[in-house]
Design goal:
It is elongated and about 60 Å long. The longest helix has 24 residues, at 199-222. The chain contains six helices and twelve strands. Residues 227-234 have low confidence and may be disordered. Helix content is 25%, strand content 21%. The chain has two domains: 4-131, MutM-like, N-terminal (N-terminal domain of MutM-like DNA repair proteins, Alpha-Beta Barrel), CATH 3.20.190; 147-267, Helicase, Ruva Protein, domain 3 (Orthogonal Bundle), CATH 1.10.8. The chain is α+β, with helices and mostly antiparallel strands. A hairpin with a 4-residue loop joins strand 8 and strand 9 (110-116). It has helices spanning 4-16, 40-47, 147-154, 161-165, 176-186, 199-222, and strands at residues 28-29, 35-37, 51-52, 56-58, 61-67, 75-80, 85-91, 100-105, 110-116, 122-126, 256-260, 263-267. Strands 2, 3, 4, 5, 6 and 10 form a six-stranded mixed beta sheet that branches. It binds a DNA duplex (16 and 16 nucleotides) through loops.
Length: 273
DNA sequence: AGTACGTCCTGATCGC
DNA sequence: TGCGATCAGGACGTAC
């Protein structure tokens, strides 16, 4: 699933492919419901002629600010990859992966391709990203994701810590796999109510979150996957065993799986207390 | 307000 | 062997 490291890799691939500097000459939307704002027609017309200024990431969102001298103001194309989304920049003449749902032709003979098998991806075109971006936490890889911040965010929250880690307002960029990984690394049981974690445990958890995400980004850096995920693939950047019958790497006892908020949650009942 | 659950989607996998 | 059922989960809407 695209979580923070995967989205960051996708963003870097866009930069590496030279998307910034190119201009959209149109948009082919193959599944209208993916466009969340504005309406489909205004979306297509609104980004046509926009020159990509940069490629940013906020949590799991990719932001492409667009400029055009005839526009009164800059606009921003916002993309969310959902669970099966991936981006690539390829020549229009190159055969597209069958799961490519949308394409955005560029002024250099190539096009930005958005593949999205399960159609959980989302697209917006807005004047101000704050219009649509939910309340996201500080980026876990930036300095403002402090221990004080996380302690405060968990205060008074009685939901299982695993469920809280999936809230983008608490930890933007964490998904199911990295949440399990961070809890595994820090030895914290995923079912513990968030408010019951000690200050020391929150500190360990925060460090593990940063470690896991940093390791993920670094692994992609070492072996950058061009046009990820076309074909779909992802690096295994986590260490937690999450296969049926797997043993814990520390105590060698059996890993257990449960469901929290309808999400598979793997943990070691002995090492995670 | 906080918490829980249904919904959207389809490819992959499972079980009979 | 084949086919229907189940699983996978990011984020939002709704309900309690």
């Amino acid at each position: 699933m695209p979580e923070l490291p995967e989205v960051e890799n996708a963003r870097r691939c866009l930069v590496q492919a030279g998307l910034p500097g190119r201009t959209f000459t149109g948009a082919n939307i193959g599944w209208a419901r993916t466009v969340k704002k504005p309406g489909l027609e205004d979306f297509v017309l609104g980004l046509t002629g926009g020159r990509v200024k940069a490629a940013h990431r906020r949590g799991k969102y990719i932001l492409l600010p667009l400029e055009n001298p005839d526009w009164p103001a800059e606009r921003t194309l916002i993309l969310h990859l959902g669970m099966t989304g991936g981006l690539s920049v390829q020549p229009k003449t190159q055969a597209a992966h069958p799961m490519v749902r949308h394409s955005f032709p560029l002024d250099d003979g190539r096009e930005l391709r958005f593949q999205d098998g399960r159609k959980f991806g989302k697209l917006w075109l807005v004047d101000d990203p704050q219009e649509v971006l939910p309340a996201l936490s500080p980026d876990p890889l930036e300095k403002d994701f402090t221990l004080e911040y996380l302690v405060d965010a968990l205060a008074g929250r009685n939901a299982p810590i695993k469920a809280l880690l999936l809230e983008q307002s608490i930890a933007a960029g964490m998904g199911n796999l990295y949440a399990d990984e961070a809890l595994y690394l820090s030895g914290i049981n995923p079912m513990r109510p968030g408010s019951e974690l000690s200050a020391d445990e929150v500190a360990r958890l925060r460090a593990s979150m940063v470690d896991a995400l940093t390791a993920g980004v670094a692994l992609y850096d070492q072996s950058r996957i061009d046009n990820w995920p076309d074909p779909p693939r992802a690096l295994t950047t986590w260490t937690i065993p999450r296969q049926k019958g797997d043993a814990c790497l520390r105590c060698h006892g059996p890993m257990e799986v449960t469901r929290i908020r309808a999400r598979s949650t793997w943990f070691c009942p002995r090492c995670q207390v």
